[in-house]
Amino acid sequence: MMDYSIRDQVAVIKLDNPPVNVLGSAALTSIYDGIGKADRDPSIKAVVICGKNGIFCAGVDIKELDNGLHAPWIKHIGDFIDNMKKPVVAAIEGFALGGGLELALFCHYRIALKTVRVSLPELQLGLMPGAGGTIRLPRAAGLNNAFDIITTGNRIPAEKAAMMGIIDQIVTGDIIEEGIKFVKSKCNIDTSLVCLRMKTVKYSGDLDDISEAFMTKVKSKFKGAIAPIVSILEFVIIILDLYYVHLQSLSKNSPTYTRAKGTCK
Ligand SMILES: CC/C=C\CC(=O)SCCNC(=O)CCNC(=O)[C@H](O)C(C)(C)COP(=O)(O)OP(=O)(O)OC[C@H]1O[C@@H](n2cnc3c(N)ncnc32)[C@H](O)[C@@H]1OP(=O)(O)O
After folding, report:
1. Is residue 249 domain-resident?
2. Diameter of the chain measured on Cα atoms
3. Which of 106, 121, 232, 254 has the highest CB neighbour number within 10 Å of its CB?
C-alpha cells in the first residue's frame, strides 16, 4: 500500500495502491505508520509524500465507505502531521481528489507538476469534505475560493491552484527529486508557522453576506435536491464561519450565529 524509503535524510512515503492510490483502511494505516516511523527516526530531517502510478491520490476508497473505514481515520494523519516538527511536503502528480487533496492539505507544503488537477468532489457524491477540507482549504485558498471549490467540485489546474495558495510551487521533472530538494530547503523552518490548521481564514466583506450568497447559488444549482446539499452546506458554513474563532464575537442577532447555534444543539 505504501513504499517507505530514505534518501539523503528525507523519508519518502510513496502511496502504492493501484490504479489510482485510493485511501482504504490498509492504505491509511500504512501512511499513518510511515509518518510515525519518519517522525521517530532521529536521522530523518523531513518527509515527502507522493504517489506511484503517475497519480498522487484519487481520494478515499468509495467502496470502503459503505462498510465503514477502519482506524486510523484519515483525520488522524492530519492531526499527527499538525504536531510534527519535521517538514512534510506533498509532491503531487496527476490528481489529488477528495481525501487525496485533504491528505495534501495536511502537509506543511504542496508542490505539483503543471499537469496536476485538484478538487473536492465530495458534495457531488453526497458526502462532505469531512477529512479537513472544510478546515484547511479556506485557510490555504481563502473563503471565496474554498466555497467555489467545495460547492462545484470543479477540478482546478495546478497553476490556478498555485495562484489561490493551494500549491506552493509548480515544478518540472521528477516529482520525487523535486520534493526532496524542496523539503530539504525547509528543514530549519518552524512548522507551526506553515501548518494550515493554525492559520486564519482570509475573506473580504461580510461573512453573513458571503454565506447567504453561496447558499442562494447552491440552492439554485441543486434544483430538487436541496435538503441534503443544504444540510451539508450548513455544516460547511459553520466551520467556515470560523466557529472556534469568531462565534463568540458575532452579534446574537446575526443569521450566522443563529444558524450555527441551531445546528449545534
Ligand atoms: C469524509 C470523506 C472524505 C473523503 C471523501 C473522498 O475522497 S470521496 C472520493 C473522491 N474521489 C473521487 O471522486 C475520484 C473518482 N475517480 C476519478 O475521478 C477517476 O477515477 C480518476 C482518478 C480521475 C482516474 O480516472 P481514470 O479514467 O484514469 O481511471 P478510472 O476512472 O477508470 O478508475 C480506475 C479504477 O479506480 C477506481 N476508482 C477511482 N477512484 C476511486 C475511489 N475514490 N474509490 C474507489 N475506487 C476508485 C475506478 O472505479 C476504477 O475501478 P475499476 O475496477 O477499474 O473499474
Report:
1. yes
2. 57
3. 106
Q: Would you state the torsion angle of the CA atoms of residues 224, 229, 234, 239, taken in this order, to the nearest 10 degrees?
A: -160
Give pLDDT tens digits along the chain (265 positions): 899 999 999 999 999 999 999 999 999 999 999 999 999 999 999 999 999 999 999 999 988 877 766 656 788 899 999 999 999 999 999 999 999 999 999 999 999 999 999 999 988 887 778 788 888 998 999 988 988 898 889 999 999 999 999 999 999 999 999 999 999 999 999 999 999 988 888 888 877 787 778 778 777 777 766 666 666 666 666 666 555 444 444 455 555 545 544 443 3
Cell of 18: 493501484
Q: Record the pTM.
A: 0.90
Regarding whether 108 and 229 lie in a shared domain, the answer is no
Ligand 1 pocket, Cβ-based, cut-off 6 angstroms: 19-20, 22, 58-63, 95, 97-99, 121-122, 125, 127, 130-131
Q: What is the ipTM of this complex?
A: 0.98
Query: 117 forms bridges with which residues in the sheet?
Result: 95, 157
